[in-house]
Each structure stands twice: as structure tokens, then as C-alpha cells.
Amino acid sequence: MMLPTTLSDGVVTLRPWRSEDAQDVHRMVQDPEIPRFMSIPSNHTLEGVKRWLSGRDEGWQAGDDLAFAIESADDGILLGSAGLEVSSDDPAIGEVGYWVAAESRGRGIAQRAVALISRWAFDVLELERLEITTHPENLKSQRVAEANGYRREGVLRAYRGQHGQRIDLVMLARLRDDAT
Asked: CA nearest 170: which of 162, 151, 180?
């Protein structure tokens, strides 16, 4: 069993989700850019968000779905989400995912969150490989990954189901011994 942890660089803090985050998360995921590039439903209800938040502890207990809220380190304002899913097929591999609220984009929030979670995954969890998959049109997310030392490996055709269809995803990866 893994206990939730908090990570911070002094500008952003990654912390465990709390039930009182539901209203803010619900408001944030109404932004059409989030469901466009993520598997988050475009009609996510407040009840659905509450259910999702209530399930976050299970992922921590199992040690395979480690979800964080991203907040401002100085005032605690919720900025987005970052997480790490450890592969059930190979526990040395993890997939990093993230989104940032529309009003917080363009400030380096995602880049900082990915740096924190990547360092933690390699140094504390001792993972060997981290992956980030992005929608081919999500160039900003690809730039976040590349700024954190992830290398583009190619396009995975019809790789994942999203909103009732199979979509291509760009695969970016970083190995523990890659220079950053």
C-alpha cells in the first residue's frame, strides 16, 4: 500500500485530491479543450466528478493510479491535475498524464508538474521508463513533455478509445538514465 504524498517546487504543489475539490474540478472540465484531448467526458456532471474524486484513494492504496491535484504553492488555488499510472504489465513503466485549467495555461504549470512527478517516479518509485501520450493535435502538451526530456517515439495508430472512437496518440518517453 502506498500512502499519498505531496510534491512541491515552491511554485506549484502536487497534493492528493480532496472531496472539497469537486466544484472547482467540475468548473474546470467544462472547458472544451480538456475533453477534446482527454478521455474526460464533455458532459461531466458534478456527481461524476465526485465519484471520480472518491476513487482516488483506491489508486494510492493499490500503488498504480497516483493522482494529484496541482495547486499554486503560495495561495493554494487549484490549477489542474497530474497523475501517474503504473503499468500492470510492467511495474517499471508509468504513464504521466496532466491537464491545466484554461485560466492557468501559459504559465509553465504543466511543465513544472511533469518535472515534479517525473523526478519522483524515477527517484522514489524507481521506475525505469515514463511515457506521455498526447493527441496528435495537442502540440502544447507535446512541448511540455519535450521540455522535460521526453523524446517523441512515434504515432500509435488507433491506440486508445476516446469518446466512442479509436484515436491516434503521439508517444513520448523518457528513461531513468536520459539526461534532462
From this structure: 151
31 three-class SS: coil
CB 91 within 8 A of CB 26: no
Contact between residue 45 and residue 27 where contact means Cβ atoms under 8 Å apart: no
pLDDT digits (tens, 9 = 90+) for 88-135: 999 999 999 999 999 999 999 999 999 999 999 999 999 999 999 999
Q: What does each C-alpha distance from 49 to 61, 72, 152 come to in angstroms?
A: 20, 21, 32
C-alpha cell at 116: 515534479
pTM attached to this predicted model: 0.93
* Length of the chain in terms of residues written: 180
Q: What's the gap between Cα 4 and its chain centre?
A: 15
Residue the block writes with cell 497534493: 15
